[in-house]
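Q: What would this chain look like folded?
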Amino acid sequence: MNKPDSDQNNTQSVISGKEAAVQHLEDSLKNGRNWFVALLEAIGLWTKAEETYNGRSYRYLISGEAFDWMLLAERLCDTVGFLIPDTEKEAFVLYGQPPINLAPEKFKELVGTAKYHHYLNYFYGVTTEEALVLAVEEEIYKEKRAWGYAREDEATNEAYRRIYGTTFSILLRWFRTVKRLPNTRSIDLTELKEFAYWRFKYRLKICEKAKVASDSRKAVSWLREHGVTSYIQRHDIPEFIIDIPDDVG
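A: My prediction, written as structure tokens:
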């Protein structure tokens, strides 16, 4: 995310940096442009992979590949919040409900091709990966319901064993060793996202492609069943997510 996306229009392409993105958003809102469209255009202009803003650390690009566009959208909404209707901003930031529905093609056009591809990485590598664990946990609860209550930690570890072949704590320790991170007793939200994306790539490497695709479909189905929406409208899993990478981490 060091350069603006090449498919932005000429007016946008001569501007770069986070200040330009914020200025574009402010100017667009003051001129009466739909705030959500203006927000996506500003996201298309954004160039910083991470930053500290108002004392909070933001990492928008996970492992250099997965774009957390909602985190950037939240930050931009916070910057120009006074120009956005409170009810619409709350519905979007807290519940992921945009004020207007845009086709995936329009979303891609506004944020740019490169960021859209990175968004796909995030959706399948972070959002869907976390959903896969939850979906398998639900299966385990249903299996054990007939003979007793399964503790949450037991269900989580069993889900990790079924998906990754080992427990949560062991996999987290591997991840931290690879990433050279301290093995602390706590984990923050940013590290959780990095861990999810690393698990996604690990799963691609250790599992057969048929199982990768089956598990990913299971996760996407779980998201739909629980009302989680996205700009992905396909039931099939794109080929790029089942291409095994050369390395993990």
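The CA atoms of residues 136 and 162 lie 8 Å apart.
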